[in-house]
Amino acid sequence: MIGLGVMHVGFDKKRFAELLGRALGSRSITQFGVQAKVDPGYISRLLRGLKDKPPSAEVIRRLASVAHGGVTVEQLLAAAGYLDDEARPRELTPTERLEQLGAMLRSEGATEEDVQTILALLESRRRLREAVATQADEDEGK
User: Fold this and answer.
1) Taking a C-beta distance cutoff of 8 angstroms, is the pair 64, 73 a contact?
2) Tens digit of each residue's pLDDT (9 = 90 or more) over 53-104
3) 112: exposed, middle or buried (C-beta count within 10 Å: 0-12, 13-18, 19+)?
4) Domains of the chain: which residue ranges?
5) What pLDDT score was predicted for residue 138?
6) What fold characterizes domain 13-87?
């Protein structure tokens, strides 16, 4: 758990607002604020880039706990400047990206059947591209 006394290394207001907008999803700012237990007016000012200081790590944790759009606490903490470049999250694997997409689709109201169909299609496409690339590599080696 990140403590409240952690120093931030550089608040990227624009990136934070973009992530917060994704985290908001299709909800109103008021609904988001109530769910996160964060003042909706404060969320609105963050979304409009009107705050020069980042929210506390605790507020970020609360926002991330109800975030839509696959937004993670690590992404918000990094944009707020609480994580330096070395501590930023690693690149997601293709499977993790598909899982995150599934969560995003579900949070936006897609049915489970639709989510599974979309994910199966994308996974099939990814495997086909890998097979084609492997075949091309083998053909070059001949």
Assistant:
1) yes
2) 999 989 999 999 999 999 999 899 989 988 865 455 566 777 778 888 888 8
3) exposed
4) 13-87, 94-141
5) 79
6) 434 Repressor (Amino-terminal Domain) (1.10.260)
